[in-house]
Write a structure and sequence with these properties.
With 335 residues, this protein is α+β, with helices and mostly antiparallel strands. It has two domains: 4-63 and 165-332, Zn peptidases (Aminopeptidase, 3-Layer(aba) Sandwich); 65-150, Elongation Factor Tu (Ef-tu), domain 3 (Beta Barrel), CATH 2.40.30. The chain has helices at residues 4-9, 18-24, 114-117, 135-138, 167-180, 203-210, 255-268, 284-287, 315-332; strands at 32-35, 41-45, 55-60, 65-71, 77-82, 94-97, 100-105, 127-129, 147-150, 155-157, 161-164, 188-193, 214-222, 242-244, 272-273, 295-303, 311-314. The strands form three sheets. An eight-stranded mixed sheet has the order 1-2-12-3-13-16-14-15, with helices on both faces. Strands 5-4-9-6-7-8 form a six-stranded antiparallel sheet, with no helix packed on it. Strand 14 (242-244), helix 7 and strand 15 (272-273) form a beta-alpha-beta unit. Helix 5 packs across helix 9 (315-332) and helix 7 (255-268) crosses helix 9 (315-332). The radius of gyration is 21 Å and the shape is globular. It starts with a helix and ends with a helix.
Length: 335
């Protein structure tokens, strides 16, 4: 995915997606596009034919982050999370807030009492150290309500693995750009949505405008294929291909579309799997009920350590998601 590294390295938490939008727009070529009132970028990709069913592909531009809630007299920033971040993934991590680089800290283990030693600190016990000497200096560059993100290098390692922040869902944005540059059998509307991480707030607005018959969400989803995990608790696994969901915490997917997708993957020799836990959610939860409703499907990239500074995914799975998505456009246009 030629744009993935650049997309992942952009800092764009929920509500501040403009930098991703500005990166994408110059790459749209001659395709018609517009930005709606919510900030969604909606692009009309012309194919060889007009489909019987109006098709929409969605991927969200935002990433999880941190919002400043208080500045201490020492210049340390108290914060809360923007989107679902596990406190266990925070301590010692580098973050970026505006032009400031910071480190997330808490009371050192050497200074905690016996009872507190074994307890995981809450987010409310943590702070961001931006390297200033006091509140007045911090206020020169940071204000309450400022939102930041993880600061993490994009790294390729091992046998086709990629580590980066924001793979969820800059990967989906990269797939949509790939489709834009590819030849498709049918016209399709590509929607780069906003504020997915804080309640799917952009997708419903986009669907009310586009009014799709069928909407496919391109996402990243949690893989738990790590040490000591077996059976259904793995949810999905890296190296086993695109993840086609039948249900998650927000959506019961269209059963016919699910079966067609799995059968199409087998027919075309594309690796595909499904989730073995009902968990999480994505823009499909808003798309299926917006306006007069639409039939929805999610095709996702299995990703370890999602919503952290070090999301891990595999190149071969990225290829499977991309290939399956293109085949679905060509198949769903006339079902």
């Amino acid at each position: 995915m030629k744009y993935l590294k650049e997309l992942c390295e952009i800092s764009a938490p929920s509500g501040e997606e403009k930098s991703v939008r500005d990166f994408i727009i110059p790459k749209l070529g001659g395709s018609d596009y517009y930005i709606d009132n919510a900030g969604n970028l909606i692009v009309v990709k012309k194919g060889k034919k007009t489909p019987k069913n109006k098709l929409m592909l969605a991927a969200h531009m935002d990433e999880v982050g941190f919002i400043v809630t208080f500045i201490d007299d020492s210049g340390m920033l108290k914060f809360d999370t923007v989107g679902g971040i596990d406190a266990k993934s925070l301590l010692g991590k580098r973050v970026k807030i505006g032009d400031n680089i910071g480190v997330i800290g808490t009371v050192p283990v050497h200074l905690t009492d016996k009872e507190s030693e074994s307890k995981m600190p809450k987010v409310s016990d943590m702070f961001i150290d931006i390297g200033v000497s006091g509140k007045e200096e911090a206020q020169k560059t940071v204000s309450l309500g400022d939102i930041g993100t993880f600061l993490s290098d994009y790294t390729e390692y091992g046998e086709g693995f990629i580590k980066s922040k924001a793979i969820d869902d800059r990967f989906g944005c990269a797939v949509l750009l790939d489709i834009l540059e590819s030849e498709t059998e049918y016209d399709v509307t590509l929607c780069f949505t906003v504020r997915e991480e804080i309640g799917l707030l952009g997708a419903g607005v986009a669907a009310n405008t586009v009014k799709p018959d069928i909407a496919i969400v391109i996402e990243s989803t949690t893989a738990n294929d790590t040490v000591g995990v077996s059976g259904s608790d793995k949810v999905c696994s890296l190296g086993e291909g695109a993840v086609v969901s039948f249900m998650d915490g927000r959506t019961l997917y269209d059963k016919t579309l699910y079966r067609l997708a799995m059968n199409l993957a087998e027919e075309k020799g594309i690796k595909a799997q499904t989730k073995t836990k009902i968990a999480g959610g994505n823009d499909a939860g808003a798309l299926q009920s917006a306006g007069i409703g639409s039939r929805v499907l999610a095709v996702s990239l299995p990703t370890r350590y999602i919503h952290s500074s070090s999301c891990v995914a595999k190149k071969e799975d990225m290829q499977s998601v991309s290939e399956l998505t293109k085949e679905l456009i060509n198949r769903f246009g006339n079902i």
